[in-house]
Amino acid sequence: MLGKLIKYDLISVSKILFPLHLALLVVTVLGRLSMALNLPQNAPLIVSLMLMLYIFGIIAIGIITLVVLVMRFYKNLFTSEGYLMHTLPVKASQHLNSKLIVAVLWSILDCVFIIFSIFILLVNQPWLNQISAANWAELKEMFSIIFLGGGNTMVSILFLCLYMLIANIYIFLSFYVSICIGQLMNKHKVLGSFLAYLVIYVISQILSVISMLFFGLSSLRGFPVQTLTFEYYRNLMTLSIVETLAFSIVFYLISNYMISKKLNLD
Fold it and tell me: Which domain range does residue 190 map to?
């Protein structure tokens, strides 16, 4: 049954998100073609304006994707649609799992679309080719110092990917648990969800700071970049992964309990 729920949710959100991201690629291709044309003397101004609009467009698509995925959870489970969805012979956890899997999947697709769009726009650009080998070497060295610190490259990449995945799950679950708490109110449920999110955010940030202070990873200020070691970043990343995973588990359990035991569709 979980597979059917995932298919249903995926089709529902894809009707909105796929055309939106396809439009991004079309605009990117058109932008790339226009860059290949002979532009007038005021070309730098035109290119700058187009680039600014492109950046705003990417940001807007990211925000719209997040809103659509979160609203899917709210509308499908806590509005009039919820009366039908909660009559299905499935557990609350299956509803939650379906929404979460689809949300994480589409957020990954969103990143893939955006990266591919940027690649189309920038590949083989003359100004990129003008960047000297020395400049690339400096960038590589800076990346190595900040993210690797002499450590294993593959381990660092895996750590970063794992954190990004868990952080993605955390983001959606923080919205889900806020909506679940907000729906307990008989009136102004959206406002209640917003206030719940603010409270949860503040509490999670306070706990994060406390844990960093406890483990001695509270601040990078005052440290030159060259002194930051791989071990420091590894410990910081490990702590971040553990914290984010712990918050995600708590949010999931609360959301599941609210949906199964405290559902309020009035």
Answer: 131-266
